[in-house]
Amino acid sequence: MARAGDVDDLDGDDEALSWIGDEEQGREAPRLRDPAAETTASEDAEDEPEEAPGSAGRRAATVGFALPYLVLTIGWILAVQQLTSGATALFAEILWQFGEFLAILSAPFWFATTLSLTRDRRPLVRVGWLALGVGLLVPWPFVLSLLAALQFAGSLT
Amino acid sequence: MRIVIPVVFAIVFALALIAPISDLGALPAIYDAYGIGDSTPWALLVLNVAAPPVLFVLGLLIGRGRPPMARVLVLIVAAALAFATYFSVFSWVQAIQPALNG
Q1: Beta carbons within 8 Å of B52's beta carbon, 6+ residues apart
Q2: Which of A13, A51, A123, B21 gives A57 a disulfide partner, CB atoms 3.0 to 4.6 angstroms apart?
Q3: Average pLDDT of B39-50?
Q4: What is the value of ipTM here, to two decimals?
Q5: Domain residue limits, chain A
Q6: In Å, how far is A110's CA from the nearest CA of chain B?
């Protein structure tokens, strides 16, 4: 009948799991790995996850651009409310609605695609693409109507 | 799969071209009819027609060599930008339109 001390007797295991000639082949360490040492090592790795170089900058760029892109999306939602196709044909009206739908999605899709495609690139590349998107996706229908309303309000006062 | 994605998106971008081409054909005549033919915003009308094909080609170039999913994503963004550009330019055309005399 085996005693509990026999199971944990790693020195005995080391001897049992060593073969003649191991030293010559660079196998001086016992072949049975120490589970306690392995657990400690994996815990250390979890405590300090390795970060890719520039990942902090990339994260800052992502967070910094999230709000402008949210504003752009809301801007396009408001912009399409003010657009009318004026078309009488059903196909033209469907096409117009499809275009409005894609215009609303343009900002979140640009943001998501940039994040996806610049995952392994330098932070500056991500910032560049996000900044370009902000410039290109200004919801002019909403901005122009807002300016016209402000001008009208200014002329009243 | 290699050819399917460009073909499907070529149709989407062709749809994005219908309204700009229609505007380019009809708007100058309307401006002429109202006596403001000199104010026809040619640059904006041409920009609207040029945007979808240019964005389609850019989408293909940027997506080249990437996995199919990434190529689809890039082309969806390009198509969305094409429609957004149309609406933006359309609103600019309306904004700078002079008072009608007709």
Answers
A1: B13, B14, B16, B17, B20, B82, B86
A2: A123
A3: 95
A4: 0.90
A5: 4-47, 55-156
A6: 6
